[in-house]
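Weekly puzzle thread! Below is a chain. First person to post its structure in token form gets bragging rights.
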Amino acid sequence: MDQEKIGKFIEKLRKSSKMTQEQLAQKLHTSRENISRWENGKNLPSIETLVRLSKLFDVSVNEIIVGENRNNENMKKIDNISVDIIKESNKKIKKIMLKFVFGMVFMILIFLCYYFINTYNTIYVYTLAAENDNFSSLDGIAIFSKNKCYLRIGDIQSKNGSEYDKYELFYYDNNTEHLLFYSDDVEINLNNYSNYSESFSYENRKKIINNLYLKIIYSDGLEDIIKVETREDMTNNLLLFKSKSNNIVYPVSMNENNKGNDEDNLNYIYKNFDYDKTNDTYTYNKQYEDFLLNMQYSNLTNFFTVIENKKSIQVIMDFNLITGDLNYTEMDNEGTILNTFIYNIKTHKCEDNSCDENHIKYFMTYYYNIYLN
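Winning reply:
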């Protein structure tokens, strides 16, 4: 609709009837200012007012909307004006709906971006293990998120019958010891809602994980301090997640119907270990705070060997990917064997000597599940 044309037509009808704006306003029960705004094309009369104008000036509402008196030339245009108004209204409605949809999509995108920025790579899961000549705790876990933090050291078991009075869990920061928890129980369960320590928080995650220690305190006051080894197991830093079976998966090479190496199970080794073409072996070495780690995989023998050189003992774990046998050996610096056993991971049977469940769990957690599964 052409507001200016409608305004001129109303002005023409008023003047043809020899009325002033004030007189027309009185008849329509409105103000002179409204009449002025209509005639200047700044505003339009309401539907009710259009009906009153049509009766007052003896013209149809359609003629007022078109801004012309009906004649042979504009007859079709005036008669179809209602259809045109509906079409125009539909266009406006579509525009409004499109703006609404785009606005909603934009708001959703803003929310998703905000959610992504605030949650991406903010959840960390670590496996924990603490072990020395006297004690071991091998099934610990730590979970850090912005909403909640949780840490479990697990059962603290004596290797030689030693008994302790209590223990403390702490971490170092700038050569200062920050106590997280102390107890005389055999298991540590800690979360940041339990008010054990203000130091246990998401903000201190890196400090805790990199410098975590377990202090064993005996009844005579003597202490054992064990470095807690931590390894990152999972973080939510993937944009696309791959589904994974909930069942325990052994390397395909252990399956009786499939001999030889499985590329997928050894993929981590192939990518991250150093390759020796002469011997067809892959090796990896790393110095930790309390032991030197050496790992080796041989394509010729299908053996995965782990050697932990500690201060007073050497631990050798030989795993046969074909048979599933884990040959575990512990010896002192003079070569005296302290502990040895053979456990078959495929059949879950102890095949030689007394198998130590904690050592098997340690191998599965920190080597098998990370490098071979």
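Puzzle host: Confirmed. Bonus trivia for everyone else. Confidence is low (pLDDT under 50) at residues 244-262.
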